[in-house]
Please model this.
Amino acid sequence: MAAPPVPDPVYVLRGTNSAINTLCFQCSNPDLDFPILYSGSSNGLIHIWNLKTRRVCDSLNGHGGNSVYCVKTLSHRRNGLLSQGRDQNICLWDLSEGRNVVTESLFTENVGFCKCSLSELTEKRSLLATPWKELEEVHVLELPSKTSICTLKPEADAKLGMPMSLRLWQPDAGSHPHLLAGYEDGSVVLWNLSMGRMLSRLTCHQEPIMSLDFDGEKAQGVTASSEKQLCLWSCAGMEKLELQQTYQLTNPGISEVALRQDKKILATAGWDHRIRLFGWKKLKPLAVLDYHTSTVYCVAFSDHNQPSDRLMAAGSKDHRISVWSIYNQT
Model:
């Protein structure tokens, strides 16, 4: 029986006039009349897309024209948004009732491209991990108070280089939060935040880690770099990182990896202009989506729980955002 043909995008969003660095859906907010996609661009703008009309309904300019490389919705604040830009600022936005106001900003003094990680613990308390002033430092603080929790800095002889990708992780309700960090030397490090120390280090790439994602239920993660491989690893006993599997890619370079919310599909954004889809359970290749004409910088899944409403979006250097409906019955 022949495999089904690879689909085309269900639609394409155009009009940013700039490379798309980051994407984030907001489809399940009951306060909104239509699903939304946020995109952060190299020209410093955050575009808010109405996915019913497939047009920009507003744009935010809070980073002084500097490239925006991270946007995240805030689940405990229905109309809240976080953005991070090359102006070294992380901004918190209030978008309720038509507002577009920066309510808080944090100056990191970090000039890299590593996205911050946000963990919303309660309605009134969140943890934020971000690269900090020194090149190897990661600073963890509590929001909205901006209280410092810890500054994580490897031993001098570790030679990890800059942090490239961060993911806060709460093993279970009664335990202290951990941080997974991918570094310039190709290592993944598991940090214990309460002790401020490194629990485990796994060197799984020869080149800097460009992106990581993590499945907390399975205690299993994935990393990608400029190489021709994906690395799948586990966090045994919540304290030791172990390499499980590597997958050899056709072409080198992955900008971002993203797990769908149901933890069944993994997507990668490729330097070869393609989006690759894998079954998460065994890292089985499912499809190669070939639409963009330049590097794909980012990929994101919608926050809808209904399979029929699930979407995936990819943003590229070619100024376009492709939106896909794929493998929704798995």
Observations:
- The radius of gyration is 19 Å.
- The chain has a mean pLDDT of 91.
- DSSP finds no helices and 28 strands in the chain.
- The CA atoms of residues 68 and 85 lie 4 Å apart.
